[in-house]
Amino acid sequence: MNEHPTRTDAAAALTSSRQRTLALTDCLDEAELLAQHSPLMSPLVWDLAHVGNQEEIWLVREAGRLPALRPDLDAIYDAFSHPRADRPALPLLAPDAARRYLRQVRERALEVLDAAAPDWDTPGSAFGGETPVTAGGFVFGMVAQHEQQHAETMLATHQLRSGPAVLDAPAPPPAPADAAALPREVLVPGGPFTMGTDTDPWALDNERPAHTVDLAPFWLDTVPVSNRAYQEFIADGGYADPRWWSPDGWKHRQQAQLEAPLFCHRDGGAWLRRRFGRTEPVPPLEPVLHVSWYEADAYARWAGRRLPTEAEWEKAARHDPDTGRSRRHPWGDADPTAEHANLGQRHLQPAPVGSYPAGAAPSGARQLTGDVWEWTSSDFLPYPDFAAYPYKEYSEVFFGTEYKVLRGGSFGVDPVACRGTFRNWDYPIRRQIFSGFRTARDADPGEAA
Fold first, then answer.
1. pLDDT tens digits for 100-158?
2. CA-based angle 230:234:239, to the nearest 5?
3. Per-residue pLDDT at 134
4. Is 284 a domain residue?
5. pLDDT 10s digits, 399-433
6. CA 239/CA 171 separation, integer angstroms
7. What CATH number corresponds to the domain at position 426?
8. Contacts of 84 (CB under 8 A, 6+ apart)
9. Together in a domain, 145 and 184
10. Which pLDDT score is estimated for 333?
11. Do residues 61 and 132 touch, judged by C-beta distance below 8 A?
């Protein structure tokens, strides 16, 4: 999204998010939409109406100051009141009723957008406190991002459901021509850089404020860890050796009986995976997918390395040593295209490691945006002088040591909800998300010279 989004940009973001929501739900019958395919996830019909309820609350009521359409739905679709495992028991709207509700809310929301207040043009740096939610179109961007985040969650539900495939199988991303010639790792110089943002009008509260972080030099994997590399860890007994696991990780590995990434299994001498209802060979050169933080941490220890901190990841992705500034994306400030990154559920699988040379960061690292969310070693904590906006439940209630930060975005996330400052977080046991990782190591003094 450009530095000064227009009403046209907001309308396009809302339209794109709704198209994806409907594409992920219209392909299933009513029974499948009402079913809970995993206790980790909501019934898809809950997500369907929830995104409409959030749009009504924030665009119709808050931004538009219009009367509530369905105030009776607020309690039912409040994500903080009902854990996912409990949502099937709620009096949910039936699929057709949910779709009608979405249409009604969207009609009102577009009326509000057309009549958006003059404070739309308030600079993006005006954020928090008494700043109107319509400043810079923020609330419209927030709602579009929220729906796209649920689209990724719904895609994960599709991966968890049993039964035949219902999603089309698009062509896989092309393999890069120069992958074999890439160095294993890139050196990220030490020194200060600007982390976070004050100027991105649609950046969320946990991405703010911009602040200076001074880092020692470090080496970072040029590409995410591949399936082939991860299978070497498995073959070497990595899952059976407590030396590579943190105490909590080893305990969880034993209790959950982890032996391989989720959805993967060995059949004779071959590795197979289930992907959206189809069983297929595991592509050796794709980034490893569906691993928990504990697994990523164990692999890094086995490899004699470590996971990067969140600040290291962001410096490698954004900092331009030639100009001293931090970019919006690894390749620059321009919006992502199909040449830059694998985003938007375009391929429904990661691209081979080394892909997207046009999307490389100044550090030389590739695929820092798209393909897989990348675990970092950092807990999800607020930045200095953090201010919750527009409500504390978006980020503030999640800050703490129980969540680990993921960066970069996966093939399932939309560009509107993916930028160099965007922060994702989850429990270290989670594997149903589209998660992978890359490793890092400290630079020796001679190497950093």
1. 999 999 999 999 999 876 567 765 445 666 678 888 899 999 999 999 999 999 999 99
2. 120
3. 86
4. no
5. 999 999 999 999 999 999 999 999 999 999 999 99
6. 33
7. 3.90.1580.10
8. 39, 40, 41, 42
9. no
10. 95
11. no
Could you give the CA distance from residue 329 to residue 347 in angstroms, rounded to a whole number?
21
Six-digit token pair at 383?
């930045």
Q: Find the domain containing 118 and state its range.
A: 7-160
Sheet strand arrangement including 218-221: 185-188, 218-221, 440-442
| Interatomic CA distance for residues 149 and 414, integer angstroms | 8
- What type of residue sits at position 156? A
170 to 78, 139, 281: CA distances (angstroms): 35, 33, 16
Phi, psi (rounded to 5 degrees) for 42? -80, 160
Q: Which two tokens stand for residue 36?
A: 């809970």
Tokens linked to 252: 């969880």
Instruction: Give me the residue label for tokens 């404020």.
Output: 209
Q: What is the pLDDT of residues 290-333, one digit of tens each?
A: 999 999 999 999 999 999 999 999 999 999 999 999 999 999 99
CATH number at residue 156: 1.20.120.450
> How many H helices and E strands in the chain?
10, 12
Residues 82, 109 within the same domain: yes
218 alpha-carbon distance from chain centroid: 25
CA–CA separation, 91 and 205 (whole Å): 32
Q: Is the same domain home to 426 and 340?
A: yes
Q: SS3 for 189?
A: coil
Instruction: Look at the chain and count its residues.
Output: 449
